[in-house]
Design goal:
Blueprint: E1 2-4, H1 10-25, H2 31-34, H3 37-52, E2 58-65, E3 68-78, E4 81-89, H4 98-112, E5 117-123, H5 127-135, E6 139-140, E7 151-157
Parallel strand pairs: 4-5
Antiparallel strand pairs: 1-2, 2-3, 3-4, 5-7, 6-7
């Protein structure tokens, strides 16, 4: 089930986010960057701001199975540009359709809002995420632009009918 995140989800969201990030940051960056009490508190605060955001400015969606949070996605529209800021699936729930369901729910929200182009940044070493996004129609920035640090910029043109991976 995909639903809108609520404030009472914040601890579960922050913990899931930390577990997911560990899979691609571990061994590449210091653990303090993705784990530890200070980072968990910072992560929770960021998600708190996202959950509290006005619906016109974005959204946070949760995937849930049998009462357990299995994935989370967040997007934001600012200055006329929409960004998929987060999409994480709990690693114990990989390859079960959770990411695809969250992505489809984001697409539905963007279509309802009339959004036709979305941006995201993906960690260059997160090849699993890059493959997922490519499957769902995301393309590298045509100008070859890169985000600060070690992130690639991808863009998605939101079609008006259905998910581009459906064919």
């Amino acid at each position: 089930m995909i639903r809108t995140a609520q404030p009472e989800d914040l601890d579960a969201i922050a913990a899931l986010h930390t577990r997911a990030r560990a899979t691609y940051y571990r061994g590449r960056t210091a653990e303090e960057v993705y784990g530890g009490a200070a980072e968990l508190a910072r992560t929770r605060e960021g998600w708190s701001r996202a959950v509290a955001r006005d619906a016109a400015d974005g959204g946070v969606l949760c995937a849930e199975r049998d009462g357990e949070l299995t994935g989370v996605a967040a997007f934001r529209t600012a200055d006329g540009e929409t960004t998929l800021t987060q999409l994480h699936v709990d690693p114990v729930h990989w390859r079960r359709g959770t990411g695809a369901a969250l992505h489809a729910a984001c697409l539905d929200a963007w279509r309802r809002a009339g959004i036709r182009r979305v941006r995201l940044e993906v960690y260059e070493h997160n090849l699993r995420a890059q493959a997922f996004y490519a499957t769902h129609g995301w393309l590298p920035d045509p100008a070859g632009a890169r985000a600060a640090g070690s992130h690639r910029i991808l863009w998605l043109t939101v079609d008006t009918v259905g998910d581009p991976s459906e064919g």
